[in-house]
Amino acid sequence: MSVGGDSSGDIYDVTIVGGGPTGLFAAFYAGLRQMKIKIIDSPQLGGQLAALYPEKYIYDVAGFPRVLAKDLVAYQVEQALQYDPTVCLEEKVTNVARDADSGILTVTTDRRLTPDEDGGDRGGVGAFMPRKLDVPRVEELVGKGIQYFVTDTSGFAGKRIVIVGGGDSAFDWALGLHEQAASCMLIHRSDRFPRP
Ligand SMILES: Cc1cc2nc3c(=O)[nH]c(=O)nc-3n(C[C@H](O)[C@H](O)[C@H](O)COP(=O)(O)OP(=O)(O)OC[C@H]3O[C@@H](n4cnc5c(N)ncnc54)[C@H](O)[C@@H]3O)c2cc1C
């Protein structure tokens, strides 16, 4: 196992880059083994569940017949933080370098960069990018009827919804929203759906 330090000189047994489900469970297990842990994420804990689909139900987690993503994140965070890891949010890891003599890995983040030094882009790796509709001027309608992320399902009650896509997410949202919507139509560009 490698040990990692940061630019402040602190040494950790484990530095976890990314506080999504994988990183949070790694933090729990490392804590169980009494390791000194740091979690770094940009921008928040919870990964895709927190950023992309907090209000979607998840059906494939052992022990939960179904669980809202935001609730699962809350459980995972509670589980991960019980051994008091150091948590650094709003930080993006930009470099990892190993010292040849000590074997220590030094993890560098963008935390101390000014917006100018950082190229002005503070969106961070946590800003997951959707595949956008290739339709002229569609960007003018984003937030006014078109949306790529669902962070609050209450706004869909009684609405006529059109979901564009034929993958897992499209089906997830069709199942998740059709009961409260006035109608729900799924449009897919192919005559078949991809196999999972
Ligand atoms: C719409 C949708 C629905 C889904 N539904 C389901 C489902 O029902 N069931 C299921 O099992 N799976 C589902 N998935 C897949 C599931 O979300 C992923 O498998 C899961 O989030 C992967 O967890 P992870 O921790 O490995 O990565 P992520 O959740 O992607 O988390 C990685 C984290 O690392 C951070 N990070 C990355 N690089 C850096 C860096 N350099 N510095 C700092 N931080 C960094 C990111 O910001 C992010 O927070 C779904 C995915 C989507 C998009």
The largest sheet, given as strand count, sense and whether it forms a barrel, is:
4 strands, mixed
- The first-to-last residue Cα distance is 35 Å
Integer tally of domains: 2
Q: Quickly give the structural class.
A: alpha/beta
Helix coverage percent: 10-25%
Radius of gyration: 20 Å
Name the shape in a single word: elongated
Number of helices: 4
- Report low-confidence residues grouped into runs of 5 or more: 118-125
Average pLDDT rating: 87
Strand content: 15-25%
Question: Strand order of the main beta sheet, please?
Answer: 2-1-9-8
The top-level CATH class of the largest domain is Alpha Beta
CATH superfamily of the largest domain: FAD/NAD(P)-binding domain
- The CATH architecture assignment of the largest domain turns out to be 3-Layer(bba) Sandwich
Small molecules bound in the structure, each named once: flavin-adenine dinucleotide
What is the H/E order? EEEHEHEEHEEEEHE
- CATH overall fold name of the largest domain: FAD/NAD(P)-binding domain
